[in-house]
Amino acid sequence: MRAPDGGDVARQIGRFLVYEEIGSWDAGSVFRAFEVRGLVRPAILKTLSPALRDRADCIEILMEEARIASELSHPNILRPLDVDEGDLGWYSAFERAHGRTLEGLMEESRQRGVGLDANAALHIVIQVLNGLAHAHEHTDAAGQPLEIVHRDVSPRNIWISYAGNVALGGFGYASMRGRTNLPTPGIERPRLDYLSPEQVAGENLDPRSDVFSMGLILYELLAGRKAYDGSALDIRAKARRADIAPLRRIAPHTPAPLERIVEGALTVDPNNRYPSASAFSDALVRFLVAHDATFGAKRFASALAILFGNVVRDERQKDDQIRAELFTQTEAARLLSFSSLQAFNEPSFSQPSASLRQLGAPNQAQPKGHGLALGQGHGHGPGPGPGPGPGPGQMSAQGALLGGLNGLAANPVAHRATMPSPAPGSPTSGLELPALAPAGLAPTPASANIAAAGSMETAFNAGAPAPFRPKLLSAAFILAGLFLIGLTIFALSSDRNMRLVKSKVRAAFIGRKPGATLIIESIPPGAKVFINDDDTGKTTPLTVNNIESETDQLVRLELEGEKAVTETVNLRASTERTVTMVFKDAMVSLELLTEPSGAEVLINDRPAPQFTPLTMDVRVGQPIKLTVKREGYKPHEATLEPRRGEPVKLDVKLEKTAELLAAEEEEAAAIKESEGGGERGQGRASPNRRPKDKPRRRHR
Predict the structure, then answer these.
(1) Does the 516-582 domain belong in CATH 2.60.40.1120?
(2) CA-wise closest residue to 371 among 434, 419, 314
(3) Which residues, listed in sequence order, are joined to residue 646 by a DSSP beta bridge?
(4) pLDDT given at position 446
(5) Mean pLDDT of 90-113
């Protein structure tokens, strides 16, 4: 469990306690959080990564997301709580129901080998479409449309509550009337899977682009796989053409009427799509009603409880306990004096004197003198100590909020507490705090506290002085001499020591960044991989685990006979990214058309990324074995030798098999016989009818 500073600890940002990372966005991470004041509401907190905290465009995205969402009031749109600057940069906070993102839900479903049924999938999509419809149709005070287009509809921006409710967030990239300098979403793999053709092409967008994105999400929920597969380049090419396999080919159990609805949202031409999110939603509702399969929030919640019962229960218990602790502690914090509350703005750090206190660890006996006995179920008032403020050994208000979260059943989380600087000569509290130093940085002795309040100071608590006794006079002189020697040494190296202290505190505060995963692909594959000029000894495709994050990494690929290609990447901690690098001169275009279309293509006995018509790049200078197969037709094989600068185009007419010809003849005969039998049957059924060519006999 990661806090936003990279350490495995809970942390307060502004008025929120952040305790678990649940996802990421283009410029940072997304966390579960709680307000630590007032109502103690659960929240979703979005932060910026360290490398982007000073980027004006990234800050603008956070602010615009909150501003646009604040314009909207709908149960299917996440409600903003705050946008502000904290000690780790700018952040935005949104109201959170107990649950997770649709992306997290789908991942959990895949890991457990279970899936949501069609009714649950339609419930999710209908709710999001209702929120989109509200955004698309929203007007200002004068009744003029705001022309909002989300532009970033994807599972990671959809929040699913375990109560069965669904809400859409992520309006940071949304276009709106009057918004200038519109940011362009980064074309990352997670987003690329959900872009409309016109969005990939860089064209102007309207609400029908969001309709297409929702169609892709519905397709994935029903099929159990994404609409596109392959490398990022393959997906981009497919997305421009909306090259998507028929839903019933992937999921044969899908009712044909539902497949037609999905196809109506996934047409290349926006003019042939559902004209609005409302129209798409209405079509899905009509389908449910026609099949007597109405599906509300309660049934959806029941389905989630069945599929993810243990996960739901554990997460609920954790959330409920944190909220209860925080609510009690905010009440206790009000009893502290104003001077103690000022500690909220004074970050301070303390190394542990013994073992780590973690969320989920058994309660340990506390020495006397604690002002707030947190997590103990009693003693929430001020403890012993002189004056109205916290006495020696008492926690500050922020320490109460961050330090008292004990006994969680699942996923223990170390917490970071904040202590006020002890008064000179006062005894230490004995409170055991989590180690802030990253791996490899030894904690300081228990007798030394490192405090930061404007400038860095070192304070040594030697305990209360013993009463002066004449028989200890000689010992006192010896100690005084040692003190003078130590003071001299300290003075000579004070600058160096202070720099060391600062660096250690900074390292402890920021924490070691977890690594990331980099997947390196090349077109063509088989290129040698160099990272920061170091030869990995491997060739593409290559997966590099635990690569250093938040740091520029130079990737160079070398292929025999070709000019090397390079790319610089910078990965966020604990993320995965795929980089596809192309040796342009080593590739030519292959265009393959077949009659009939829809044939499977094998290149060197490996499936091509799509059925015919097929367009893809192939390697020059190497023979290619091409096999084309379609059910009912004879396989077609050919050998190609692509040349540099000469695109390859093939038209293949497939030959029917004898079985298919015989089946077609039988079918034609049956049709002919049924047509003839129908005419005879009509004649027998109407014996009084006279053939048209026989004249009527006149009676005299």
Answers:
(1) yes
(2) 419
(3) 643
(4) 36
(5) 86
Q: What is the CATH number of domain 588-653?
A: 2.60.40.1120
Question: Among 19, 297, 35, which Cα is nearest to 160's?
Answer: 297
HEC string of 224-288 equals CCCCCCCCHHHHHHHHHHCCCCCHHHHCCCCCHHHHHHHHHHCCCCHHHCCCCHHHHHHHHHHHH
Residues of the chain with CATH 1.10.510.10: 100-295
DSSP letters spanning 398-434: HHHHHH-----SSS--EE----PPPPTTPPP------
Homologous superfamily of 100-295: Transferase(Phosphotransferase) domain 1 (1.10.510.10)
State the Cα torsion 205-210-215-220 to the nearest 10°. 110
Amino acid symbol at 644: R
What would the pLDDT profile of 447-493 be if each residue is shown by its tens digit? 333 333 333 333 333 344 444 444 455 566 666 666 666 655 555 54
Structure tokens at 133: 């419809």
Q: Tell me the pTM.
A: 0.50
Residue 436 CA to residue 352 CA, distance in Å, equals 8
Neighbours of 331 (CB within 10 A): 11
Q: Residues 6 or more apart from 605 whose CB is under 8 A from it?
A: 625, 627
Q: Where in the chain is the domain with CATH 2.60.40.1120?
A: 516-582, 588-653
Pair 367, 382: CB distance under 8 Å: no
- Residue 204 pLDDT: 87
Q: Are strands 28-35 and 624-629 parallel, antiparallel or unpaired?
A: unpaired
204: left (phi over 0), alpha (psi -120 to 50) or beta: beta
- 282-300 pLDDT per residue, tens: 999 988 888 777 677 888 8
